[in-house]
Structures are given as structure tokens and as C-alpha cells.
Amino acid sequence: MKKNLFYLFALICSMSLFTACSDDDDPTWKKVPSQAITAENLSLTTNMPSNPDASVKLTMSDAQNGVITLSKAVRGMDEVEVNVNVTEQTDGSFKFQGEKSIGTTTKAITDLISSTTVRVEGTITLDGKAEVAVTTAAAGNLVKKWNLCDAIVLGEKSKVAHAPFRLNWVSTYKDASGQNEGLAADNIQLMGSVVVSGIMTKLLKDVEFRADGSIVANYAKEVEINQDEIISGILGGGDLPSTEGIEWLSSPANLAYWYAGGDHVYVLLDIPSIVAEAMKDAENPSMTPEAIMEIVEMVKNMKGAQIKELLSAFLASMGSDNILSKLDLTKIADSDIEKLIGYVLNGFPLSYQMTEVALANGSKVNDIYVYLDKGIFDIFMPALYPMLPALEAMLADVTLDMGGYPLPLWPLLQALTGMSSLTEFEGIWKSTTLFTVGLDLATGSLKEKEAE
Fold this sequence. Notes:
The chain has helices at 2-24, 107-112, 183-201, 227-234, 271-279, 289-300, 304-316, 334-346, 374-384, 388-396, 409-417, 424-430; strands at 42-45, 55-62, 65-74, 77-88, 94-102, 115-124, 130-139, 145-148, 153-154, 160-162, 165-171, 204-209, 215-220, 248-250, 256-261, 264-269, 348-358, 364-373, 399-402, 405-408, 432-442. The protein has 452 residues and is an alpha+beta fold. It has two domains: 28-139; 145-450, no CATH class.
């Protein structure tokens, strides 16, 4: 009996040894980890600032082929799978590369880009560490240089159809006597579009949405807005100021980025790069990109209430004479503050309208209006209302020079807007059904003289 038990024990041991040897004999490619690799073990580079929540996963098919799954690594796409060629390296790591063309999936992508090519390459080790580079190239209607609209074009009922800066505002608000429904919003949108368009014309020449997701703009080296041009805009002059003699500079390609997703174009700002560009000529810069990143990281992990408390303390430190100290941040919901931080980290959502403008000479110009809509402004407005009386008092002290004669600004604004007091702004906003503010960009000129 003991002899039989001994034989049985020896058989079990030999089977275990055989199994262990079999595992050791597995080809190396089968030992490549197939779990998702996250930030701690992932070195990820992309066309634009990468998402800290991004992860990658390599699933091997055989010794030379696999599938890379990119989760939140490509802006605007939650997950992308790319077939890759895989090569084992002498150090035991695996090198991979591949690309995939992705067609239309959402409204924004259908309208703006026809396809996006995603290329991925990198290495992965058997202990689950990866270095991955992801590059994207978009093709479609948006991917080109767009000129700032060069004319103010009125549509039905004297509404602004096209302008360098376009404000659309519809409100059912009536004045104190119950009359003039919507008049104030109509007046403000016309005046605001004309005045700010005059400023934008002398500030910005064009905007290019590049295939790699970067945004490059030509802007004025020096901006000179004279008072006569502002008065002309306030009084309803439709002619834009001349841009003759303006020296245009091209912005660096690493300051702002775009991507399409859902029904929006997202604009993502690289805040450290913007700070570095702004401070590059300063002898003793007050803020460095590293300091900005520390602030962003700190704020990113704070609750909305904490951020409001921090900002309220900063506003209070300005002193009671500073008009910004009148802002009441307690009127903003904590969740809205956190939403704004999300926009800073992941991009601001811009809505858009694409149209084809037919000119009198039979030619056509493509036009895109990119804008912020009412939802974003709803976040700020409650905090603004307490500041309105102080703002009105400040405007009451401002005068313009009109041909050598002082022209009080506030009575002029009252006449042009139809508001007797700035405090009416709260009622106007609460009755607002449509509000958009943005830039009008075109592939050609909309000037009448070029359409003859």
C-alpha cells in the first residue's frame, strides 16, 4: 500500500514538473501583458496635450500582429482600435506600429472632417510599461485657413447675417411700461456686433485649423483702436476700419488646439505654453509655466465650493473700490464651477454653423460661424447682477471726445440700447431665448465691391 502511494506521489510530482516546463516553453509574445496600461506605467505623446485619463492595451494575435486599444488617447474619440505589426526586440520588449483611417461618426465630424488617420507606434515591456506615440491627421471642410469675415452683411429685419464678430440675442423682455418687447436685445446685438467687429478687424487676420489639430492665427503686432472708430461703430456705421499698414504676426502652433466631437468643435488651450509665450520677453517673469501647471493641478483636484472660496478671497483682496469685487461668486453653482474647470482641461465646446454665401457676381464663399451659446453664459450671469449698479455709475463718469466736444457715454448708451438702467440687464437675460457670440470666418471676401 505504501509502495502504491509512493508511485502516485511520484506521478503527481512529474505531472506538475511537466506543466511548469510547458509554461516556461511558451513563446515570449504570449507573455505580453494584455491589461490596460494607465498613466503610472504609460509614457504617452500625442498631437495635443494628452488626457491624463488615457490608457492603452495591446492584445497579441500572434508573434507579429496585435491590436492596440487607445482609450481617451485621441481627443474626441472615447476608444480607438488599431491593428499593429509587432516585433520582439533583443532586450525582450516588443515594438509595434500601425495606422487606421476613421470615417464619420458624429454630426460634428460629418460636417467638419471627412476622416481622421490615427497612427500609433511604441514599445511595451513584459512587466507592463509602455511608451506610445499617437499622431492624428484630419481631412475635411474645416481643415484649411479661414479669413476673418471682411464685411458686415445685414439680413432680414436688419439682423446681422455676417460680421467679423457676431452677436445674436433674442429676448422677450419688455420695458417698465410693458412695451418694446425684445427691443433692447435687438439694439445691443446690432451695436455690439458692429463695435466689436471693428476691433476684431484690426486685431485678427485669419485662423488656420491644421490637420494635426493645432490652431495658428495671424494677428496684429500692435493694435491701435482710435476713439473715432469706436464712436462710428456705436452710431451704427457699417464700414469696417482699414487694415492698411498693419503688421501681422503668426502665432506659434503649440498654444491652442481643436478637435471635433458630438455636435461641437472643442478648443483646447495649452496654458503653460501660452504663459511661456507671454512672458518670454520679460526680464523677471511673475509667473512661469511650471507655476501655472502647479495651480492647474491644484485646482483640478478641488471641489467647486473650494474654488469659489479661493476666488472670492482674491476678489475681496482687490479692495471695495475695484468693480470686480462686486461679483458675487456664491451665486454660481458648485457643479458649474467644476464644469468650467473641465472646459479648461478638456477644451471649450464651440457650436458652429456652416453656410455657403452666394455673392451677386455668382461666385460662392464658404462661411463658418463658431460661437459660444447661452449655456456657458448662464453660469456667470447670476454673479454679474450685483455688479451692475457699480458698472452703471462707472459708465456715467465716462465721456467721449466728439469733434472736440465732450460726449457723455451713458446717455448715449441709454438712447442706443433702449435701457433706462443697467439693472434691466437681469430681466433681459432671464427672458432670453437665444444668445450666441462668436467669430465669422470665410474662405473668400464678402465685400459688396468684390461681388459686383
